[in-house]
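note to self — DONT lose this again. spent like an hour looking for the file last time. sequence + predicted structure for the chain T wanted, 273 res
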Amino acid sequence: MTKPLRGIGAASVLAVLALATAAGVARAQRGAAPPRAAAAAPSAYSGPRTPDRKPDLNGIWQSVGTAHWNLEAHSASEGVPAGFSVVEGGSIPYQPWALAKRNENYKNRLNDDPLRKCFMPGVPRATYLPFPFEITQTPNHIGIAYEFAHATRTIFLDGTAHLDDLDFWMGDARGKWDGDTLVVDTVSLGDKTWFDQAGNFHSDALKVVERFTPIDATHVSYEATIDDAKVFTRPWKISLVLYRRIEKNLELLDYECAEQVYEKLFKQKTGKS
């Protein structure tokens, strides 16, 4: 029989709990998500299908989370909500020089984030911006239109090879169906985009493989494997959930980033309000 602990008062118990909580917060701030139960594998998809019997992804989708601000676990700060890491294993496996560069980017993020200059968000960042995006699906290609700055992607499903020696902000994408999972291989992404607002970055060697696995009619499990041997010690993966927007009469609106940035810079130079 287990003997009860003696000599521990309520104050001592509260102190122990406080220390444990503080340790958990510290782990999250260092980039490691607190231990949680493993997520259940997506069940067999039983939602709507297109005429060619593929899962119907047509519609407007959006990520609800904090990956846009930082892929890794982070505490709240002004304008930034706290969030758990979406990186498998908690931390991004940078080479030492690249980690130093990322830390420099973080210090200068309010000015150097490419999105603050209205550049295209790149892949995979476009998927988890706090803006909706619309998927248009056909048997031979899938088009994605993003609300942010009119960014677009065309994912070819016809088996054609990647184009050579290109440098696209949104990459050159080729897709295929693996059962009910859409697998998208994107290259030619250049080196000018970031993964998030925290300064996580890549080189022109970046290759991204995305997996869109529908869970049901309104949820998609999204994974992106990042491969860039110039910057990271190994490939790594992020995972999050995409939600179908189902509001009545919903449509993408305009987010004219360039106009807003121009107005801000104009006011700074002229002093006009």
